[in-house]
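Example with several molecule types.
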Amino acid sequence: MTAVVFGVLAPVAAVSGLLVFRFRSMARVTIALLVSFLASGGLLISLGLGYLGTVVILMMIIEMIIMMVFMIAYMMNPAGLIQMTMHHNQRGARAISVATFVLLSAGIFATPWPRRAGAAPPDPTFQLGKALMGPQMLTMITLGFTLFAAMVAAVVLATARGRYDRFGDDLKRRPPSDSAGGGVGR
Amino acid sequence: MLQLFLLLAAGLLAAGLYGALSQQSIVMIMMGLELMLNGVTVAAGAFWHFLAPASAAGQVIVVVVVVAMAAEMAVGFAVVTAIHRARDVDMADAAADLRE
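Resulting structure tokens for the full complex:
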């Protein structure tokens, strides 16, 4: 069963992952990435990780919708209708990524992988929860603090007039008029 | 079968690496990073299933990667918002102050 699901979903995940950097329209780019994530989530489910696969699928649907809104809001060429290039050092990037893939592939086939140790538990979700609330508690605490720090950092960075973006003591003072962006006070 | 899953993970990681290195838009760079983390998720799931299903370590790695994805997206979008507000740009090349 896993082999059949892999045969269907693996090409979908790989091709849609590659298409992310081929499409010009931001909507298509986001949908291609979402398809790649959905296929990966399906693969996780086929491996017996039903809970984590479902989490990845649900999280990525929401994340990609948010990403689509951000891309259309911020990008200069969201529809890909203007003939402009948004790349740099493509040849170097291609060489590095191909070299990385070749190196990893060589390692994958050269490594003598050990035999499967033990059997899968009847409920992998229970196994995960028990680990996170037991021996992996430090990991859980670290993840919690990481998420909290990310939330605080995101709010501080995104707030229009936050602690690091005020102009003197007077909170009502407007930013100085600067003809060149990125100058005084910014 | 493990090798095939790891090969897919390596392909996703390499594709994401290409995007992260070659794209100018900060949002597209974030997409490249997400794709790389996607590869790690597949590899961790395959390790759990084919090597050590009796241990929860593989599943915990997937949880760590999912949290890393969420944090990366939240902070990444906040950085894009801050740079866009300050300079009206969303390109990494226009935010290279530290290099200068």
